[in-house]
Amino acid sequence: MDKKLFSPVKDHLNGRYLSASSPNYLASTPEEDDQVLDMNWVIAVVKRRLLVMAIVAASIGTLTGSVILWNAKKIVSEYEGKFTVLVEPLTTDDRLSKLLVQSQNNSLGITDLNKIKSSAEEGSSVDYQSLTRVLKSPEVLIPLVNKLQESYPNFDYNTLNNRLIIQRVTFLRDGKQGGTKLLDISYRDADPKRIKYVLEETAKYYLEYMGKERLRVSKKSIDFIARQMPQLQQKVDTLQQQLQILRIKYNFNLPELRSRSLSDQLDNLTNRRLEVQVQLAESRQQYETYKKRSLRGDNRWIVDISPKSYENLISKITEIESQLALSSTQFYENSLPIQSLREKQQSLRDLMQREAESVLFQMKSQLEQWEARDRVLTNSQNLLQAKITQLPQAQRRYDEIQLQLELAKDTLKLFIEKQKTLQLDAGQIDGAWQIISKPQLVKDENGDISSVTEKPTRRQLMIAIVISILLGIAIGFLVEVLNTVFHTPEEIKSATKRPLLGVIPIAKAMKIKSRISESFPPKFTSVSSTTNSESLKRIIVSNYKDFSVIEAFHYLYTNIQLLNAEHPITSLTITSTIKGEGKSTVAVYLAKTASAVGKRVLLVDANMRFPQLHTYLGLSNKKGLSNTLSSDLTLNEVIQRLPDDDNLFVLTAGTIPRDPITLLSSKKMHYLMEQFLALFDLVIYDTPPLIGLADGHLLASQTEGTVLIVKIEKTDRGMVRKALDQLNVADFKVLGVVANWVK
Predict the structure, then answer these.
(1) Is the C or the N end of the chain the one with fewer CB within 10 Å?
(2) Longest CA–CA separation in the chain, Å
(3) Which 8-state DSSP code applies to residue 509?
């Protein structure tokens, strides 16, 4: 092989070769490029499935467009006619008259009347939402339907209800929607004559119906009010009488004021009774004291009662007692002067006794008066307290009666007001509804009858096109999801979560030549050549211009070496999930790349089930690995060197054994692998596929790492996941994956 093709890799390893035509997918991790990968995946799917999406979108669009156009031809043109009615009086006289009655009953002021006038311009006494529903109810429309069936026998309620539209005319004021007193009544049909006939009959029927209905309601309401008003008046009179009885019985007009008055009276009586009790206690004590002194013969206390009245009497008694004391020293006790003085003394004492008894009698009388006064105050206080105790009940009863009376009066006022209003309405029955726009068909600017049927063909076609495109895209993505093979190296890196060691492109210029029993130095570019005839030894001849293939293997080898720069990898296993993914070709290219930089490389064909390396390289396979393991052949007898490459050695598979597993798991195989490491700088093992065979697992367990080959547009995602799971369970070191056959 010409080593000039691989010479750039030497400069690359020495740091002088920095450019390449194929990207280095090892530079970034999946976590760093998730968003970019997702967008790239979408773009890639669109590119791959563009034809499918276009075919599906065109098919669905054509089908739906045909259906839409066919349905559009079947749509029957319909016409519309309408008339407009005035539901309420246009002026505010009617409303002002009703509000005037209310103002007379409720005594409204000037300000309130001004508010009434302004509200009359905006307010409405009709519930238009309910009115439109009533006018389309079966009870109202059935008589009209019977009338219409005289001219159109097939006419029924459902037809009229579905085609008759009643709407209130609205307007915008200050950005808010307001309602007028007008109703638009329209009818749609395919027959213009029937439209006009139906609208004319409907207008007549509604005018007649609303007049009768208004008269019936007014009469019924007036009769009801007439029956209720005597009962309400009697109830008001009864409540007023009960209220009057309470006022007379408890002597108050307003219970709140009466309660405060009674409380004040009770406080006054309590204070007066306390004063009387104090006076009574003092008088009783004084009376008892003076009475005791009088019984002992000491009546001088009367001076305390009335000093001026009894001072002279006391002085006379004192004077006589002084004379007796003086005379008793001069005369005997039974002498005449002594006896005379004694008689005067006794006479004065008797007089004082009588005066004392008179004063005591007066004091007793005054004491009895105080006691009587205390009893009177006590009785008054008890009576007043009883009234105060009963007052809350009376007040509660008063409030209840007053509340009932107010409600009864309000109800009576409302009935009187309603009676007058209904009487006023009864006088305006003839002006209930007024037609301001006669029934007529809708016409265009030229005065011709215009169809109101919408044929949204263009809009439906646009929607169908959009939906068709979306469905086409969806089906394209569905096909992509159902097709579980890998399409891009990014998908492989994202799915496996392993380093992407290399991306091997398809060779642009490749041809196969044959030679019989003659060796030809191979020049490698293609990674997917296969053997189609056992009688021919096929070799690959590369076009020197196919630089991208060679550079891809430069990067693959460099990435493998950079995985462990301090301790370069000396043995590795090249494998794949299934047959035909190009693992043997990748092994050959990788071995040639390593030998080009001066490494002694041994390429071992460990695929003793379907050996391929000897065919690719044009070598003999009579003696190989299987013969070495099963006999005493030496390595020099089985290892072959390529004629054009002194550093590349090949150990072919040899004759196909019955049980390759036994040979690969033997101690001799382990010994040989150790010998290989001692003799060569790099040993590359080409193994059978991982799925369904254990050969690759045995070799992977004894090498420093495994490289998994994944072929674009062929390798199934599930197979790759299963193979990686098997390697992970056995704790084998997977160096990374190689994307093969990339466009």
Answers:
(1) C
(2) 208
(3) S
Sequence letter at residue 570 = T
Q: Among 581, 587, 528, which residue's Cα sits nearest to residue 557?
A: 587
Phi, psi of 502 (to 5 degrees): -165, 160
What per-residue confidence (pLDDT) applies to 245?
82
Q: Helices then strands (H, E): number in the chain?
A: 24, 14
pLDDT of 414 over the 90 cut:
no
Token pair recorded at residue 248: 């007379």
**Paired residues of 515 in beta bridges:** 537
Q: What are phi and psi of 446, to 5 degrees?
A: -85, 0
| Pairing between β-strand 434-441 and β-strand 176-189 as defined by DSSP bridges | unpaired
Contacts of 254 by beta carbon, 8 Å cutoff, 6+ apart: none
Tokens of 411: 């109800």
Q: What CA–CA distance (Å, rounded) separates 535 from 533?
A: 5
**Distance from C-alpha of 736 to C-alpha of 643, rounded to nearest angstrom:** 32
Which has the closest alpha carbon to 489: 427, 433, 552, 568?
552
Radius of gyration of the chain (CA): 65
Beta strands in 174-295 (DSSP E): 176-189
Least confident of 240-254, 330-344, 405-419: 240-254
Confidence (pLDDT) at 427: 59
Query: Which run of H or of E encompasses 512?
Result: strand 510-515
For residue range 571-600, list pLDDT tens digits in order: 999 999 999 999 999 999 999 999 999 999
Q: CA nearest 587: which of 682, 511, 485, 691?
A: 682
Distance of alpha carbon 499 from alpha carbon 706, whole angstroms: 12
- 3-class secondary-structure state, position 88: coil
- Single-letter residue type at 344: K
Q: How far apart are the first and last CA of the chain?
A: 26
Report the distance separating Cα 476 and Cα 52, nearest Å: 6
Evaluate whether 413 touches 105 at the Cβ level (below 8 Å): yes
C-alpha to C-alpha distance for 704 and 568, rounded to whole angstroms: 10
Mean pLDDT of 297-313: 70
Instruction: Report the alpha-carbon distance of residue 589 to residue 601 in Å, rounded.
Output: 12
Confidence of residue 720 (pLDDT cuts 50, 70, 90): very high
Q: CB atoms < 10 A from the CB of 215, how many?
A: 14
Sign for the pseudo-dihedral over CA of 618, 621, 624, 625: positive
Instruction: Kindly state the DSSP code that residue 384 receives in the 8-state scheme.
Output: H
Task: Please name the residue that has the structure tokens 């590119």.
Answer: 47
Length of the chain: 743
Cα dihedral sign, 662-664-670-672: positive
CA 325, distance to chain mean position in Å, is 124
**pTM listed for this prediction:** 0.46
> What type of residue is 111?
T
CA atoms within 13 A on the CB side of 151: 11
**Residue 315 has which token pair?**
């002085």
